[in-house]
Specification:
seven-stranded parallel beta sheet; TIM Barrel; 13 helices; 7 strands
Length: 317
């Protein structure tokens, strides 16, 4: 059966893909700054082996707003090729202005993306009407569905539940990833489901992973699922069973793992953690620098106390 967005695939549906774990993938880069195709393929395989239901590329963890157009195209192309239709690939177009985001949306559509991820415009302040025009312009530029993204830490312009409810009247709005850490707003997004049951609400803030699922959230979009996909999939399954005790135990582990982000900038720290497990080389896009040796030692200790170790024969140091 076709979904309400018109997209069909024999291996997945939007109904199930967004009711699971959809990692915001890092973008593995080689030493010259180009997309590392081998590392990207290995990362996709690791994530899907962990039971995840979709892939989100070129978000914050994927450095989408900092990559060149050529880098972006290469990442999208590599992710789609590696996924091979097993799960949907959602592509972030988190750029500061509508024209730039529309160009990125057309590029993603040309490369074969299954959906786009769109947030608020930024750099300049915007109101709700401006945010709505931004999303509607992107909807008009390409035929792809959209997952909204609320991340005011980066855009400085939050998406309010009332604005999202207006946008959700369009069936091509699949749902929202909320990383704001504002539980009142998250509950406002959940309320939209009362009027549109197919609207999906996913939590992107790892500190609120278990509580969001137990409250009725549909899925998770956690950065640490790059290296620990099975952990978050296990949490999601425990929440489906309403096993609060198991959720609490898993959340304790997740919360402790989150401390790796405190060792330097969070993005090089995440990429360092991935590299220690054979996923990429830990190199971020400029002007960021890789984690220092001292920072890597601290990150390795955090990983080790939760049983994460480097697999034998992995490609990268």
């Amino acid at each position: 059966m076709p979904s309400e967005t018109g997209k069909t695939n024999p291996k997945w549906s939007w109904d199930t893909a967004l009711c699971g774990v959809v990692p915001p993938m890092i973008s593995p880069l080689n030493e010259t700054g180009e997309s590392d195709g081998d590392a990207l393929k290995a990362l996709v395989g690791h994530i899907l082996d962990g039971g995840c239901s979709g892939l989100f590329v070129l978000g914050g963890c994927g450095e989408g707003a900092w990559l060149t157009s050529a880098q972006r195209a290469s990442v999208v192309r590599g992710a789609i090729w590696s996924a091979a239709g097993r799960v949907p690939v959602l592509v972030g177009v988190m750029l500061p202005a509508t024209g730039l985001a529309m160009d990125a949306a057309r590029q993603a559509a040309d490369e074969g993306a299954d959906a786009l991820v769109v947030g608020s415009p930024y750099y300049l302040g915007v109101d709700a009407a401006t945010q709505q025009r931004h999303v509607e312009a992107i909807l008009g530029a390409v035929p792809l569905p959209i997952l909204l993204y609320n991340i005011p830490q980066a855009t400085h312009n939050p998406l309010a539940p009332a604005t999202v409810a207006q946008l959700a009247q369009d069936a091509r709005i699949l749902g929202i990833k909320d990383s704001a850490g504002d539980f009142e707003a998250f509950q406002g997004f959940l309320a939209i489901k009362k009027h549109r049951t197919a609207f999906r609400v996913l939590q992107g803030n790892e500190y609120f992973a278990s509580s969001s699922l137990l409250l009725g959230g549909d899925g998770l979009v956690p950065g640490m699922a790059n290296f620990a996909p099975a952990l978050f999939v296990t949490l999601h399954r425990a929440a489906i069973k309403a096993d609060a005790a198991a959720c609490a135990k898993l959340q304790e582990q997740i919360t402790d793992l989150c401390t790796l982000h405190t060792h330097g900038h969070w993005l090089p720290a995440l990429k360092a953690a991935c590299a220690m497990l054979g996923l990429g080389n830990g190199v971020p896009s400029p002007p960021l620098l890789p984690a220092t040796e001292e920072q890597r030692r601290a990150i390795a200790a955090i990983l080790a106390r939760h049983g994460f170790s480097r697999p034998p024969g992995s490609l990268h140091p």
